Amino acid sequence: MGCCNRRCGLIAGAVFGAAVAILGGVLIPVGNKIIQETVEKEAVIEPGTTAYDTWTAVGAKVYRQFWFFDVKNPLEVVQHGSRPVLVERGPYTYRTRYLPRDNITFNPNETASFLIPFGAIFEPSMSVGPEEDEITSLNLALAGAYSLISPELHLALEILIRTTNASLFQRRPVKELLWGYKDPMLKETVGLFPDYNNTFDGYYNVYTGKNDISKVGIVDMWRGSRSLRFWNNTYCDMINGTDASSFPPFLKKKEPLYFFTSDICRSVSASYEQTRNLKGIEVYRYSLLPSTLASPLDNPDNKCFCSNMKTTRNCTLAGVLDISTCQDGRPIYISLPHFLHGSQELRDSLVGLNPHEEHHKTFLDVEPTTGFTLNFAKRIQVNMMYGPSKVITVLKKVKDYTIFPLVWLNETATLDDATADMFKRELISRIQMLEIAQQALLGVGVAIFVICLISYCVVRRRNHQSKFA
């Protein structure tokens, strides 16, 4: 009777263990479903959700750091056609994006429209010097006029240059170069980012994700249009992806992230690079591929971004993007800092450029479950072009067209410690607790089942042997 009770107990234990293991196994899809439903609910951009609270708040501090290229031999360039010798100076740091989204309106088609106010506040403690530091840089007005007028009018430009005693290079304070100054030659405000503090980016229309979380954050329209009007090409004028502040949840490493950036007037994609730990949170790092600004010879998709055959060497030049069509005709060329991933001839025409992948690439660190961007560095170089002229005195010694780097910027932000702790407490810890419960139930159940099953077999064998003893 005792042996029977023991075997029955072991059988019951094995059944119990199997039940616990099955419960742990069942909890895996159930738990995943709970996680998915929770994330999908909180990722929707509507009042009361985590995504909305993050989206509407100023959030993490966003900084723009500027590095200027100081010309050390301006007279030699003008008088002898020497290559410009450049020395990088910076950073000069400003806090930006400190104003929340403005004019937020929810629309019947499950989109939200808004404006992004621009503003910049100088941060002396994060800068190498004051805004009054002077930089010897390209004369913006002269280079712009040279590019915009036909060679037949160069004589008129030469007269204007002589009248105002202008030259190819000028020395001005950082503040004026960035935010504008009254140019003596053009008699109007000239600068890299004039009137930045009084302008907006947008209107944007983005999907809220309601009823379809796979579309959350994706740009539906920008400035009232579903496509751009800069490139005269359906492919290049497409607006793809989000504004990069967030992406639809549940990222997959093999799938690139698409986002639109008005700074370069086009959409781009970023590919998975590696998994990193950011303040205790697992994030996926995505970065731009070298093919983003490759020449059409290497990336035929970029053919429609090539508009000037002369300055791009018949579209064989890699690493620069002419965005004059979205800059009111101003001859601005965008590249990565120090012409990273650009053609060697871009760097050969200058002295002092040293591209470095780690320091000059653009990347995003995105939490894969929620799709929230928790850390990023957007690095862009602003360039202008000048070239030879038989009429303009300060350009007579110039041998060829030169894409000249004015400044490169690093716009960066990362979540602070308080936000990281909240993120881990509200999401990561709950997911980890559920996973621990799943694994514990499965492990304990399997262990009980195996122990009871082995014990049952041992007891049965002993009982069998005792009958024949």
UniProtKB/TrEMBL annotation:
Signal peptide: none annotated. Belongs to the CD36 family. The chain crosses the membrane at residues 7-28, 440-459. This is Platelet glycoprotein 4. It is found in: Apical cell membrane; Cell membrane; Golgi apparatus; Membrane raft. Keywords: Cell adhesion, Cell membrane, Disulfide bond, Glycoprotein, Golgi apparatus, Isopeptide bond, Lipid transport, Lipoprotein, Membrane, Palmitate, Receptor, Transmembrane, Transmembrane helix, Transport, Ubl conjugation. GO terms for molecular function: low-density lipoprotein particle binding; low-density lipoprotein particle receptor activity; scavenger receptor activity. Disulfide bonds join 236-304, 265-326, 306-315. GO terms for biological process: amyloid-beta clearance by cellular catabolic process; cell adhesion; lipid storage; lipoprotein transport; long-chain fatty acid import into cell; low-density lipoprotein particle clearance; receptor-mediated endocytosis. One of its GO terms (cellular component) is cell surface. It is a multi-pass membrane protein. It catalyses: hexadecanoate(out) = hexadecanoate(in); tetracosanoate(out) = tetracosanoate(in); tetradecanoate(out) = tetradecanoate(in); butanoate(out) = butanoate(in).
